[in-house]
Amino acid sequence: MRVHHYWTRDEEFLLGTKLPRAAETKGWELTPEAVDFHRTAYDDVEDPQIRRFLPGLRERLGRAR
Length: 65
Fold this sequence. Notes:
By secondary structure, the protein is mostly helical.
């Protein structure tokens, strides 16, 4: 079983919502170095295994419309 979870969602959400909220609740200082760390720390593993399900999913979604 694989779980695909992206804590950061996308970069816009990370920088505009997630980091400011975490900084406020956890008392972090959002220095440029800290922001850069969070921008790059979570994207180092690409796992294409889930892509094999896309054709069937697209087909089923097309029929549901």
